[in-house]
Predict the 3D structure of the following.
Amino acid sequence: MITVGLITSEDIPEALKISLRELGSDYLSAEDFEEMIEPKDGFCMVARENGHVLGFSICKEFGPEEVDDRLRLPHSPEREMLLSKKKIGLLDSVSVSENARGLGVGRIMSEACLAQFERDGAEIMTAMAWEDVHGHANIDHILRNTLGITRSFALIGYWNQFVTSPKGHDCPMCGAPCKCYGRLYYRIF
Ligand SMILES: CC(C)(COP(=O)(O)OP(=O)(O)OC[C@H]1O[C@@H](n2cnc3c(N)ncnc32)[C@H](O)[C@@H]1OP(=O)(O)O)[C@@H](O)C(=O)NCCC(=O)NCCS
């Protein structure tokens, strides 16, 4: 049976392995997962089956003063709207192991994150989804059809801003620098 719960230190090695493979070598580190054991600013859900991690979802919660640093959006009505909220829930990274895809793991974890944001009093849930060079966002269906989140604008080369490597983000799909998009989604509670 697949269960979803908050990450523990035992989950980190398998969660990191999934991240390195699916999100790239320079995106999340062991320290990023360790910080989520007793997080100050969010939570990390993991899906498990038979003692193994099938996927993880890192979420952040913050106020308007952190919107620009965390999301790096251009001046736009969407940015203004986010800046007007007292508490923002960001679905930051969702990843499911390749051999566990299509079983509903991504959906179950994303639903658990939405429910946690609501419990924590977030006024809005947002996500910057990875969208490939052909305009396909793997998580689009989950966000729009399952969670009822509105799709907004996309920013090309978005992920290069979040890594320190001089060549830019080492994207599993297009290499470095990454030419994929960050697509903004949001749902007001
Ligand atoms: C995107 C991802 C998290 C989906 O996880 P998953 O557990 O395979 O998804 P689910 O089984 O819960 O599927 C839920 C729905 O999304 C659809 N879906 C899943 N992956 C999809 C994809 N790559 N493209 C289009 N639709 C997809 C499913 O068909 C399903 O539709 P349904 O509700 O009508 O049956 C997973 O493919 C993944 O980790 N990809 C690599 C990393 C990534 O892109 N993460 C998102 C970064 S923003």
